[in-house]
Amino acid sequence: MSPRERAIAAGLILSIAGSIAFAYAFVAQLGTQWQGGALVCAFAGLALAMLGWARWIVSHEQVVDLRDTYPQPEEERGRQVEAFTHGVAQITRRTWLTRLLYGTLGVLGVAALFPAAALGPQPGDTLFHTKWRRGMRMQRSDGSLLKADDINVDGVETVFPEGDGSDYRAMTVIVRLPEGVGKNTTAGLVAYSKACTHTGCPVALYRSADHRLICPCHQSVFDAADGAKVLDGPADRPLPQLPIEISDDGYVRAGGDFNDSIGPGFWEHA
Question: Residue 156: how many CB atoms within 10 A of its CB?
């Protein structure tokens, strides 16, 4: 083994050691300094090996292969066979170096899986759906369950799915409209997402005189009597509506999930 081949092998071994050290430092949570140092070794060793490979292993000779239209002399054919045999021997001697390179890349790839696996669970469909399911009772922030008779005309309540009084995505504002007012009501009740469709601020104000829900952050105004459509402000789409039902025991329950994605507009609303 020539000194040049030993230098390339040393770089590859340094890269393998750096990859293993990074994986250990990541699992053991030794800190970003240790992880960064290990990555420096891994990539520096690989870079040095690649530079040596390009300079000393890859041939830079330009060869022009002339095609004769007549048989070559015996001596010329002998030299060609000898050159071919020498080339095969060179390739055979360097097979271990190629295998070491593949091993280095494999170890580095395995080490890269550790931070990828620590990214956490996939979001699934939580971008488009909340915890509301049909039949879920509505709960106030203090844990009490909401009954239809608890809300007076033009009364407002903020509710969550039963058992989870802190989920912002499922936070809902429910309003009782006067008799004969409003569309898609259930016993005069309508429920909408409390997250403004502009920037997600809580829609915290209700003006009973004209049944308006108002976001205090940027003054978007929604018509509670007409599907929470936008009447004013920067919001560009209505508040998603939550279908509701009233069970025989008087509790207000969800009739399903919101009819649209909650919060600021997604790309499909652009």
Answer: 16
